[in-house]
């Protein structure tokens, strides 16, 4: 996974030199029907729906990345926060679904 993340981060910031956008990252997991913010100490999050039917995640932390290295570090930090347990097949198995959003 690290090779793919490194390549993605490098590509984003190569393009950024041309377009000059801001890179914002959020990362959460769904575990046992709970949403947990992986960039904010596993704080519990809430899904809210507005009058137009738009869903938002209340309290989700967004971090600004100013370089490919910083983007990779943020993503790696979040991966370390994920819920894992041993299984018969895999010593370190993910026990949740994780969603990483990168806004440009």
Highlighted features:
104 residues, alpha+beta, two-stranded antiparallel ribbon
Question: Can you walk through the features of this model?
Answer:
The two termini are 21 Å apart. The chain has two helices and eight strands. The chain has one domain (2-103): Kinesin motor domain (Kinesin, 3-Layer(aba) Sandwich). Helices cover 31% and strands 37% of the residues. The model has no long low-confidence stretch (mean pLDDT 89). The strands form two sheets. Strands 1, 2, 3, 4, 5 and 8 form a six-stranded antiparallel β-sheet that branches. A two-stranded antiparallel sheet has the order 6-7. With 104 residues, it is of the alpha+beta class. Helix 1 packs antiparallel against helix 2 (68-81). The radius of gyration is 15 Å and the shape is globular. A hairpin with a 2-residue loop joins strand 1 and strand 2 (34-37).
């Amino acid at each position: 996974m690290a090779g793919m993340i490194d390549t993605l981060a490098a590509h984003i910031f190569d393009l950024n030199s041309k377009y000059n956008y801001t890179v914002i990252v959020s990362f959460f997991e769904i575990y046992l029907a709970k949403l947990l913010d992986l960039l904010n100490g596993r704080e519990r999050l809430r899904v809210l729906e507005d009058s137009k039917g738009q869903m938002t995640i209340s309290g989700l932390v967004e971090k600004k990345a100013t370089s490919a290295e910083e983007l990779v570090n943020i993503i790696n930090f979040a991966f370390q926060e994920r819920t894992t347990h041993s299984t018969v097949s895999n010593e370190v198995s993910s026990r949740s679904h994780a969603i990483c959003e990168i806004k440009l």
